[in-house]
Design a protein that fits this description.
- This protein is of the alpha/beta class.
- It has a single domain (3-126), classed as Response regulator (Rossmann fold), CATH 3.40.50.2300.
- Helices cover 50% and strands 19% of the residues.
- α1 (11-23) links the parallel β1 and β2.
- It is globular and about 40 Å long.
Length: 127
């Protein structure tokens, strides 16, 4: 399956997402803050990133801008945040997020979004 980078400063959320995604057959790496996320992204070049917005050091917007600054096919990014307001969502979309999901969320929601992202990519490749 896919290699997914999970970035969140809350250990319980990182573990929940890791468990759910690994049970679905994905290889999961995680990072606890934005700076570690940038390093992990550059080292791994994952197929998808699940990214928290509010983190110490470099926030999710900064990580997203870094990801979008790389050449090649854009990696899908799902933003997770407790900031479910219009301004935060608009900024995430402007910076290049593929999805914006408010906390609290069900782990199945993230799994459904990731499956949809990969289904869309496979259809685009086949077309």
């Amino acid at each position: 399956m896919a290699q997914i980078l999970v970035v969140d400063d809350e250990p319980a959320i990182r573990q929940l997402l890791t468990d759910v995604l690994e049970l679905d057959g994905h290889e999961v790496r995680s990072a606890a803050d934005g700076l570690a996320a940038v390093d992990a992204f550059e080292a791994l070049r994952p197929d998808c990133v699940v990214l928290d917005l509010m983190m110490p050091g470099l926030d999710g917007y900064g990580v997203l801008r870094n990801i979008r600054g790389h050449d090649g096919d854009p990696v899908p990014v799902i933003m997770l945040t407790a900031l479910a307001d219009r301004d935060s969502a608009a900024r995430a979309w402007t910076d290049g997020a593929d999805y914006y999901l408010a906390k609290p969320f069900a782990a199945d929601e993230v799994l459904h979004l990731i499956r949809g992202l990969f289904r869309e990519r496979m259809q685009a490749v086949e077309a």
